[in-house]
Amino acid sequence: MKTLISSDVRLLANLIQEGKVVIFPTETVYGIGASTKNEAACLRVYEIKGRPKDNPLIAHFHSIESIEEVCVLSEIGRKVLERFSPGPITLILPKKDKSLFPKDLDTLAVRIPKNPDIREWIRLTGGPISAPSANLSGRPSLTKLADVVRYFDGKVDGILIAEEPSYGIESTVLSLVGEHPTLLRPGSIESEELKTLLPDLVVPNPLETSPALSMSSVPLSPGTKYKHYAPSAQVLLVSTEEFIHSLKTGFDSKDTAWIGFSLSSKEGKGKVLTERNDAVSKEAGGFSEFDHFSIVSTNEEYASKLYAFFEACDLSKIQTIICEAPKPGKGWEGLRNRLEKAALKK
Ligand code: TXA
Ligand code: MG
């Protein structure tokens, strides 16, 4: 199949109207989309990703009004949208239009992406666009055009070129259909912020499914149910102390990579680099251009770099990725959740 890769929103909107599948960037991650009104096209998205059929898709809209045409929007639902949309938040709402995909559900996940070009594209398609993250099922979501092209060129009808994702982790998912508003997936819009509008917000305990924060301990829930967002390399989520220790000792620096805040210490990164240089001079061929270290200064920067770093590590056949625990405070919630999921043993 020939994939049309273009920034022309009109051309790519035409593809959706013809029942085709198009990949597009959002402020969170790339999505792989089809018209919510076209069941066959939506089912193709599942096939391309290898996604289990019981996992429903988010419908992407260009405006609050267009959501209201097809869903029941309560007063509080409207307030949440007015406050946080367009932006990285998805609401689960009761469906008015039962013909929309997925037809067997009474609810619809709705979201308005932040980038005006993407909203214009959705508007031109007639909308909405049902889209999961553009990745093979179980793997990390994608945040770079080059990775999208590597996986999906020839497998989808179009790839829309627009501003690359900046948040880097998937949207916060908030259900407004039960008795109490419930956080279904943490993200960049955090529970503390949501509670200012929704004081009765239910936040399921994230520690229930988390592996212990130690390199030596065994994760609590190795079940495949939770395997998600994971690269092929093994991910170790460790404390700052363990992170610094791991730089100095215990890991073969040729097939290990590090992402975190504490990468500047001389005995740490400096020591690893010296060892690597020694190794390079010993073995002809040496290292690829791959940088084994990703330095971040905030949780937000960490989130925005994480999935692309995972991809780069897998491409370079890295065996172990050591991730420093995020800092308590802003940006912790969603990042911590993704790191924990990636660190669950396969
Ligand atoms: O940032 C994002 O949300 C990205 C971009 C492309 O918008 N999309 C994304 O989609 O992450 P996906 O399919 O990877 O995750 C959607 C989540 C899943 O956990 C799914 O189970 C949940 O939303 N979901 C979708 N429809 C639902 C519904 N009607 N009720 C409850 N959960 C739903
Ligand atoms: Mg996904």
Tell me about this structure:
With 346 residues, this protein is of the alpha/beta class. It folds into two domains: 4-213, DHBP synthase; 234-343, no CATH class. It contains eleven helices and 14 strands. A hairpin with a 6-residue loop joins strand 9 (172-175) and strand 10. The longest helix is centred in the last third of the chain and has 17 residues, at 266-282. The model is unreliable at 207-226 (pLDDT under 50).
Q: What would a concise description of this structure say?
A:
With 346 residues, this protein is an alpha/beta fold.
Number of helices: 11
What is the fourth-level CATH superfamily of the largest domain?
DHBP synthase
Structural class: alpha/beta
Segments where pLDDT lies below 50 for 5+ residues? 207-226
Radius of gyration: 21 Å
Helix content: 25-40%
Architecture (CATH level 2) name of the largest domain: Alpha-Beta Complex
Average pLDDT number: 90
Main sheet specs: 10 strands, mixed
The N- to C-terminal Cα distance equals 33 Å
- Hetero ligands: threonylcarbamoyladenylate, magnesium ion
Strand content bin: 15-25%
CATH class descriptor name of the largest domain? Alpha Beta
Number of strands: 14
* Count of domains: 2
Shape: globular
CATH-defined fold name of the largest domain? DHBP synthase
Order of strands in the sheet with most strands: 1-8-2-3-7-4-6-5-9-10
Taken in chain order, the helices and strands follow as: EHEEHEHHEEHEHEEEHEHEHEHEH
Domain YrdC-like: 6-189
Family: Belongs to the SUA5 family.
Protein name: Threonylcarbamoyl-AMP synthase
Enzyme class: transferase
